[in-house]
Amino acid sequence: MPVFAQETIKIGLVAPMSGAFALYGQGFHQSMQAYMANYGDTVAGKKVEIIVRDNTTNTPETARRLAQELITRERVDFLAGFALSPDALSVANLSAQAKKPTIVMLAAASGLTAKSPYLVRVSYSNIQTSASMAKWAYKNGVRKVYTMVSDYAPGIDCEVAFQEAFESLGGKIIGNSRMPLASLEYAPYVQRLKESGADAVYLFVPSGDPMVSFMKNYVERGLPQAGMKLLTTTDLAEEYIKPMGDAAAYITNTIQYYDTLNNEENAKFKTAYLKIAGKNPGAIALGGYDGMAVIYEVSRKLNGKLDPEKIMAAMKGLKIKSPRGNLMIDPDTRDAVANMYVAKIEKKGSQYVPVVIDTFVDVKEGK
């Protein structure tokens, strides 16, 4: 029989808090703290505790080991975090075996939640962002696209999703490049792009240094002046936009959240996050806030009696108020159903910020 006497709801956060992807894990944690700042550190009469484990190596093996420790030693009620898809995939079997509800706060591989009945994703999938970008491009007159992605599972996911959606509408993919994930040397690929004759390039590389490096090459080779549009699906938090400088103005992007969205919940989120992190949040960090919202809402529904089977049942079809707008957990897939926003980067005063120019409403994975 389940034991309901525990007076603390324990959340085990597995994410890179240091190393190359430290901003991802720190963003999760800061957003979780922002949620608690807004809504308190208790729910259903129980204290909420976040137990952080640093996947500094950013490897699936470490993610699984840390998750196992949180389950067996800390006896957490929820696992959460998981920045990259291999991390989330590595704990899928573990979550199923331990019957441990697991909140995926970023990892965007398609079909991820099918790997375990105890996985719920509150971020988005690569299919949602890439297919929405393809639809927007075709709607706005783009007919010939060259795709460029980092050569790893999420990049290939994005490439395939964009291509299928774009070609289904009548567009043409006239070339593609898969670029080494570990390299920031994009010059040869950008030269190939320049010679392709495409109307636009669809790009997917990790946020941060890869985007900065690509944008430098894109501008140096005169592609904006040649009229080639740049379509991306990436996090445009201020910390990622600023290093791009003036080149950021050439980006058209699709994702589930920008800090410029105008709604009451986003205003509350930004205020709390700014106090904790000293900066505005982005699409990656948002997963921490929405993950906490799901945990709080389920805990209230169950009056703090956190039986794993009842948790998973309560999550299906769950609706929460998110800084992105409304968010629903798909009752069939346990994936996020939410708006996908298309934005251009514009200069406001001395800063470049994303400005929404179109919205795809309540997008499901694969739709």
UniProtKB/TrEMBL annotation:
Keywords: Signal. This is ABC transporter substrate-binding protein. Residues 8-349 form the Leucine-binding protein domain. Belongs to the leucine-binding protein family. It comes from Noviherbaspirillum pedocola. InterPro entries: BCAA_transport, Leu-bd, Peripla_BP_I. SUPFAM superfamilies: Periplasmic binding protein-like I. Pfam families: Peripla_BP_6.
